[in-house]
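Q: Could you fold this chain for me?
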Amino acid sequence: MGKHIVKFYSLGNADTSLISLSNGKYLLWDYANVKTEDADDKRIDLPSELSKEVKEDFDFVCFTHADTDHIKGFSDYFYLEHAKKYQDENRKHINELWVPASVLMDTHAEDEAKILKAEARHRLKSKDKIKVFSRPDKMKAWCDDQDDISYDEVKHLFVDAGKLVPGLTKDTDGIEIFVHSPFASDSKEIDRNGECIVVQAEFNDNCTTKLILGADTPHEVWIDIVNITKHYKHESRLEWDVFHISHHSSYLSLSDEKGKDKTNPKEEIKWLFETQGNSRGRMISSSKPIPAKNSDADGNQPPHRQAAAYYEDVANGISGEYLVTMEYPTESSPEPIVLEIDEHNCTKLLKKVVTSATYIASKNPPRAGKW
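A: Sure. Below is the predicted structure, expressed as structure tokens.
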């Protein structure tokens, strides 16, 4: 299938990643333009960077949930179909929008979350160019409360947990995407982190690479994901070669207790990282630099050095790497973390030489039992 590229951008405690498929399709995972005019702000100029990469439209744009650090500035960058004020010629089009059901159901949405809700509702009402990730019965109940949306007419646009996302296949695209979350929830309150989109993307057939995109998932939901996956004997759907760490290396994605110097994860999450990670696997933390002990940044907000210490141990145990977006390749000059995936050499980390603008490929990391 040729080469696929996955990029994780240096945005501090915010998320955006881009998957460029070998057939020319682009999948954008969240969008957060957090760059300021401060000369000391080392975060990337996201709209400029993406526009250099993607000349035409985005085939798929997924907003895992509607928190600011995953959607900031999207209404300035994208062409939105629900209102003319977002339709000037310089904007990028979204051929298919992906959102969790919580985006539509949030009755307290404000600012850009409200704009995203309006766009998702418009597309769903138009019966086109959208996928909503949710249990179908939950969406049926919501549709039944709407005056202008018929469940029977839009049910093909809902993607359930435990299923593959339709429209992308290994045969035609070199990728399939398995959905882990969101799943059923009886709560009437919207929990954006708890109901965000979590997937495993599997590339190619011969030299398979498995990528887990963890969004801001808390440990309680990860426990449910692990238990549900084991119940259905789908353990392979939680194997990983690349793991996008949840919630900027917050300890709350591992456990309810931070720990003094290292977070000890819940047993299910310990299994997820220590059993399911393939040899030479890489963990990516979309976050600020990891704080030193007793530093000003060593506090309540992620990234937490205790969680980072655990991830470092996992990486060492599989001869892999734990990479932080605002530390790569250096803290003084962060650049996107770029992975190249192909069916012959598996996954390469394309390293930027600090003294040069030239990217060179690191040694290919073989994985046990794969080739």
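A (continued): The longest strand covers residues 277-285.
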